[in-house]
Amino acid sequence: MGKTKKNMPRVLVIHGPNLNMLGLREPEVYGRTRLAEIDDRLVGLGQQWNLEVSSFQSNHEGAIVDKIQACLGKIDGLIINPAAYTHTSIAIRDAIVVLGVPIIEVHLSNIHKRESFRHKSLMADVVTGQIVGLGVAGYYLALQALAEKLGMLPSD
Ligand code: DQA
Known about the structure:
Blueprint: E1 10-15, H1 27-30, H2 35-48, E2 52-57, H3 61-70, E3 77-81, H4 90-97, E4 103-107, E5 129-132, H5 137-149
Parallel strand pairs: 1-2, 1-3, 3-4, 4-5
Helix pairs in contact: 2-5, 3-4
This protein binds 1,3,4-trihydroxy-5-OXO-cyclohexanecarboxylic acid.
């Protein structure tokens, strides 16, 4: 018998500012997939791997901090694309540090190949791992990595 929903590890996916515009926004950089499609696919993959996946997008730094604080003790893993806040937000960095769960930072584009102001991530040294430059696949690979870390998929 499968695990009941109640016992399924919970993964939160946070998308930062302007990611609600995916598909419309600089498609040559960020691709043509809409955010809702990414979120739906993550829920579907979560079902395969017995993970309960929910997602949250905000254009506001404080709203993202509030969401992270509200999830303290209620999630088992986090996938976060802080978008432009990656490069500026000590507040989001300070919030995620407290969670104490595996965190995967995702960027659709390869931030290291772009403008120098994108090269620095204030999250980099407090997350479990980063996936950059693989487009939407980065989110799915991040969920796979969390599934392994949370014991829902075999790992090495
Ligand atoms: C991004 C990269 C950031 O530099 C940028 O501000 C974004 C998206 C990415 O997914 O490639 O909004 O996080």
